[in-house]
Structure formats: structure tokens, C-alpha cells
Design a protein that fits this description.
With 479 residues, this protein is α/β, with parallel strands linked by helices. It contains 11 helices and 21 strands. It has helices at 7-21, 190-194, 198-202, 215-226, 230-233, 369-396, 400-404, 419-426, 435-447, 453-465, 467-478; strands at residues 29-30, 34-36, 55-57, 79-81, 103-105, 113-114, 127-129, 137-138, 151-153, 177-179, 204-205, 240-242, 250-252, 277-283, 288-290, 301-306, 312-314, 324-325, 331-333, 342-350, 355-366. The structure holds 2-acetamido-2-deoxy-beta-D-glucopyranose (NAG) (8 copies). Belongs to the immunoglobulin superfamily. AMIGO family.
């Protein structure tokens, strides 16, 4: 009888008990909480899986299909590896009652379309590996409800469209990695991409796609490059685009941006343009629209703008003549002034869900170049004309010596200054055949600026010897 209670018997009993509770399938290796059934040529799931399983490895098998509730007997399942199988699709409710799952590896399978029911209920899922499948399309709601998602890998597929719109601040607050590289996207909904939360944009990998070269595309990557995002910096050479979509005309657009020289990237402006981190450069007097496009969508949002000098501009200051705000949050500066420049910050607030999101616009108002040029040109012309007149005066007049002793003007008038006198210079009556009259005319011309006779005398002498100096005087006299 003593043998019945020997330690050996107890161990044996325990083992027996254990094996009936959580059977370890013969083809798997079981450790405390890990079930490893990889590389066994399985075409179906093993029947009885121990409910204590936390990690289940089924990779490198030949699974082609998984039925509803396949893993519902595993309430503690945290990590599921299904990589390198032959899954073409997933049935409804595969992950029913598997809500503890945090890591799911479905890479290197043959999935074609990611249907929205596939991942339903996985609200704890943090990591999703789907690279190297045959996915062409990701349905709109596929990622909805995956509110704990941190990293999602979709690279090496044939994705042509992706539901960027389904990713928002509040829908996926932890998402920091979205790998869509090496797919077949030709164009993206760039407005949706720009409205992604900043943390998602930072972790969005889009290299090695079939992007068509366009300004809207380039401007997004340009901004990301300015911000030093790893996604762009680490794969500079893999960022290619196709000119007119022609596969052979592939350009490494971050290396060679010449094609985009005509794009208004940071400077802009095709208003109204949705801008996230934007540098808006406008000419003085232009009407400016600053859109408050954030990751929040909805009708019941209220907006607040803060001006560069920390002024709150809310919807109530609608009647402000200088700055208007539309109900959709767009701020309008009817005629921008240089001192309107600066950083404008918009906050969108969703009272119902207590959410907010911000957007910044760096506005630079510049004086239009053509005007400055014109002014300069006019001044220049005025000086040249005056100079010529001076020279004529000094050298073409017959009574050179007599004239030299006459007091001369200290400064030169601009043509616009006194059109009448200018006209008199050019008038046909001005002729060296009539010295007295010419002299009078000259006096008239120089009468106004005449200040000090002594000075004028000196300057005139200098001017005769160094006409270049006269130029400088002329210029300073104008200002
Ligand atoms: C799965 O969960 C549902 C409720 O969400 C429950 O009714 C059902 O019994 C569960 N199934 C299993 C196999 O645990
Ligand atoms: C680019 O994508 C193709 C498939 O679309 C893949 O075969 C190739 O290896 C990728 N290249 C790089 C550098 O990732
Ligand atoms: C950019 O504009 C210039 C002048 O308008 C034009 O000659 C050139 O072809 C344009 N470049 C591209 C890539 O469109
Ligand atoms: C705007 O201001 C003008 C007077 O400056 C006033 O007559 C008008 O009623 C105001 N409009 C609104 C919508 O407040
Ligand atoms: C907001 O409304 C204004 C005026 O109705 C319009 O000009 C502007 O384009 C709108 N902005 C957006 C982002 O829809
Ligand atoms: C900009 O200048 C105008 C007058 O030129 C002045 O009325 C306005 O207060 C200035 N605005 C700022 C923000 O300095
Ligand atoms: C905006 O959200 C942040 C947290 O995300 C919160 O700290 C802040 O108070 C909110 N601001 C407003 C105006 O609700
Ligand atoms: C805004 O733009 C101006 C001119 O482009 C630049 O000097 C300034 O540093 C920018 N400010 C911010 C906060 O980016």
C-alpha cells in the first residue's frame, strides 16, 4: 500500500491528469505555455489544443483554410504564428473568442483580398504581419476596431488601394508603423495621407511602389524629408516614381528632384490647398485661405485659430474685417499684409468625443517682387537720364569755361519729381545755339535741389572728373 503514495506514483498521476486537461498533440512540442507545431506538413489544425497555450506556432505547414472559432478554445492566446502556409482566405469568425491575441503573423501566405471581417474582434492586437502575400486590396473596414494596433506590415504584396481614411488619431492611437512598401500603388489619396495622425505619417513606409510622378505626391515626401523621417531617410534610393506612369521612366525622386522643379512644394499656392505642416508663401494683398484639416472628421467640430501674436480667433470673431473664419474651420485673410506673417495654429475640437487635433501653418507674406523691381528700374532710369543730361550740360555747351564758374546743383532730380522741368531738358528749344536760353533752362532744372552754393560747386567739379560719383549722389539725393 505504501507504494501507492510513493513520489513516483504522485508524479505519474499528475502527468495523467495534466494530459487529459491539456493534451499536447503528438506532432507538436509543448512547453509550459508554448505550443510549437511548425514544419509538420499540417493541412488542418490539430484537434485538441491545450487551453493554457499562450504562444502557438503553426508556421511552415500547408494550412489552406481555417474555420470559424479555430482558436476559441485558447483564451490565453497571445501570439499566433501562421507564416509560410497556403492560406488564400480566412473564413468568417476565425478569430472569434480570440480577443487576447496581441501578435498575429500571417506573412508569406497567399491571401488575396483582406476582407473586413478577417480581423474582427482583435481589439488587443498590437502587431500584424501580412507581408509577402498576394494582397491586392485592403477593404475599408479591415483595420477598424484594431484599436491597440502598433505595427502593421503589408509590404511585398500587390496592394493598389489602402483605406488610409480609416486611420485617425482616436481610432488607432498607438499606431507608429504602417509598412506599405514594395506594393503596386500608383497614386494615393494624398489628402487622406496628409490627414493621418503625425505618428502614423512618421512610420508610413511607401518606397518601392509604382507611384506616378506628380506634384501632390512629391510635396508629401518633400515634407517628410524636411522632417527627417526615417521612412524617407533610410530608403532614399528606393523612393522612385514613374514619369507619366511609364514603368521604364523611373526616377529616384528624392535624389533627383529636377522633374519637380515646377511644383510648388513648400512655397505653394494653389488655394485652397489642404496643408498639414505647411509653409505658405503669399504675396502681399492676396486673399489667403488656411484650411484647418486635421485628422478629425465630422460636422460637430469647433475650431480655434491662434494667430502668430497669440490671439485667439474663434468662430465668434466672424465679423472681424481683417480675418474671417468659416464654419468649416477655414480661416480667411482677405488681403494679407506683411505683418500677418507667422505661425498660425488651428485646433479642432470634437466636444462629443472629447477629442482634439491641431494643425500648423507657417504663413510668409512677401512684397511682390515685380513692384520692387519697377521702383528700382525707374530710379535707375532716372539716374541714367540725369547723368546724360549732366554730361551734355558739361561738355556740349559752347561756353564751357564760363559755365564752370557757375554754381552747380548738389543733387539730381528724378524725372518723376518734376515732369515739367524734365520736359524742358528734352524740349527742342534746348540747344547749344542759344546758350543763354539753355543756361536759363538748366538753372530752372537745378533750381529746386540747390541748397548750398559752396557744396554744389565742389560736387560739380568732382562730377566732371568722376561721373561715377555723380551717380551716387543722384541716388542718395533721391531717397
Ligand atoms: C465565444 O464568445 C461568445 C460570446 O462572445 C460566447 O457566447 C461563446 O460561447 C464563446 N464560444 C466559445 C467556444 O468559447
Ligand atoms: C520592390 O518590390 C518588388 C515587388 O513589387 C520586389 O520584388 C523587390 O524585391 C522590391 N525591391 C526592394 C529593393 O525592396
Ligand atoms: C518647368 O517649367 C519650365 C518653364 O515653364 C519648362 O520649360 C519645363 O519643361 C518645366 N519642367 C517640367 C518638368 O515640367
Ligand atoms: C458686422 O458688423 C457690422 C458693423 O460693423 C454690423 O452691421 C453687422 O451686423 C455685423 N454682422 C454680423 C454677422 O455680426
Ligand atoms: C470652407 O468654406 C469656405 C467658404 O465656404 C471655402 O472657401 C473653403 O474651401 C472651405 N474649406 C474646406 C476645407 O472645405
Ligand atoms: C500690421 O500693420 C497694421 C498697419 O500697418 C496694423 O494696424 C496692425 O495692427 C499690424 N498687425 C500686427 C499683427 O502687427
Ligand atoms: C486636447 O487633448 C489633449 C490630450 O490629447 C488634452 O490634454 C487637452 O486638454 C485637449 N485640449 C482641449 C482644448 O480639449
Ligand atoms: C516660417 O517660415 C519662415 C520663412 O520661410 C522661416 O524663416 C521660419 O523659420 C518659419 N517658422 C517656422 C516656425 O517654421
Amino acid at each position: 500500500m505504501t507504494s501507492l503514495f510513493s513520489p513516483d506514483t504522485v508524479v505519474l498521476l499528475c502527468l495523467l491528469l495534466h494530459s487529459t486537461e491539456g493534451t499536447c498533440p503528438s506532432i507538436c512540442l509543448c512547453t509550459s505555455d508554448t505550443l510549437s507545431c511548425g514544419s509538420q506538413g499540417l493541412t488542418r489544425l490539430p484537434l485538441l489544443l491545450p487551453p493554457t497555450t499562450v504562444t502557438l506556432d503553426l508556421s511552415y505547414n500547408r494550412l489552406g483554410w481555417l474555420g470559424p472559432g479555430s482558436f476559441s478554445s485558447l483564451p490565453k492566446l497571445d501570439t499566433l504564428r501562421l507564416a509560410n502556409n497556403q492560406l488564400t482566405t480566412l473564413g468568417h469568425g476565425v478569430f472569434q473568442n480570440t480577443s487576447s491575441l496581441r501578435h498575429l503573423d500571417l506573412s508569406s501566405n497567399r491571401l488575396r483580398v483582406l476582407e473586413q471581417h478577417f480581423l474582427q474582434g482583435l481589439w488587443r492586437l498590437e502587431e500584424l504581419l501580412l507581408y509577402n502575400n498576394h494582397i491586392t486590396r485592403v477593404e475599408g473596414g479591415t483595420l477598424s476596431g484594431l484599436s491597440s494596433l502598433r505595427k502593421a506590415y503589408f509590404s511585398l504584396n500587390q496592394v493598389t488601394e489602402f483605406p488610409f481614411f480609416s486611420i485617425r488619431d482616436h481610432s488607432h492611437p498607438f499606431l507608429t508603423m504602417l509598412d506599405l512598401s514594395s506594393n503596386r500603388m500608383t497614386t494615393l489619396p494624398w489628402e487622406d495621407v496628409k490627414a493621418l495622425p503625425g505618428s502614423v505619417q512618421k512610420g508610413l513606409y511607401l518606397h518601392n511602389n509604382s507611384l506616378v510622378c506628380e506634384c501632390s505626391m512629391y510635396s508629401v515626401f518633400w515634407h517628410w524629408e524636411q522632417r527627417g523621417f526615417d521612412s524617407v531617410r533610410d530608403f532614399t534610393d528606393e523612393h522612385t516614381c514613374l514619369i507619366y506612369g511609364e514603368p521604364r521612366a523611373s526616377v529616384r525622386f528624392l535624389r533627383h528632384s529636377l522633374y519637380f522643379q515646377n511644383c510648388t512644394v513648400g512655397k505653394v499656392v494653389s488655394l485652397p490647398m489642404a496643408v498639414l505642416l505647411s509653409n505658405l508663401m503669399v504675396n502681399e494683398g492676396e486673399r489667403v485661405h488656411l484650411d484647418c484639416q486635421t485628422s478629425l472628421r465630422g460636422k460637430e467640430l469647433s475650431y480655434t485659430w491662434v494667430s502668430p501674436n497669440q490671439e485667439y480667433l474663434t468662430q465668434t470673431s466672424f465679423n472681424d474685417t481683417l480675418i474671417n473664419m468659416f464654419p468649416n474651420g477655414t480661416l480667411e485673410i482677405p488681403a494679407a499684409k506683411v505683418n500677418d506673417s507667422g505661425l498660425y495654429l488651428c485646433t479642432a475640437l470634437d466636444y462629443k468625443h472629447m477629442l482634439n487635433a491641431t494643425r500648423e501653418v507657417n504663413v510668409t507674406v512677401i512684397r511682390p517682387m515685380p513692384d520692387t523691381f519697377n521702383t528700382g528700374y525707374t530710379t535707375l532710369l532716372g539716374c541714367v537720364v540725369t547723368l546724360v543730361v549732366i554730361l551734355m550740360y558739361l561738355y556740349l555747351t559752347p561756353c564751357r569755361c564760363g559755365c564752370c564758374k557757375q554754381p552747380l546743383p548738389p543733387a539730381i532730380p528724378i524725372p518723376a519729381y518734376d515732369p515739367n522741368t524734365l520736359a524742358s531738358i528734352f524740349s527742342p528749344t534746348l540747344s547749344h545755339r542759344d546758350p543763354t536760353k539753355a543756361n536759363i533752362n538748366k538753372r530752372v532744372v537745378f533750381m529746386e535741389p540747390l541748397m548750398e552754393e559752396q557744396n554744389g560747386d565742389l560736387r560739380a567739379t568732382l562730377a566732371r572728373e568722376q561721373p561715377g560719383l555723380q551717380w551716387e549722389w543722384g541716388a542718395s539725393g533721391l531717397s
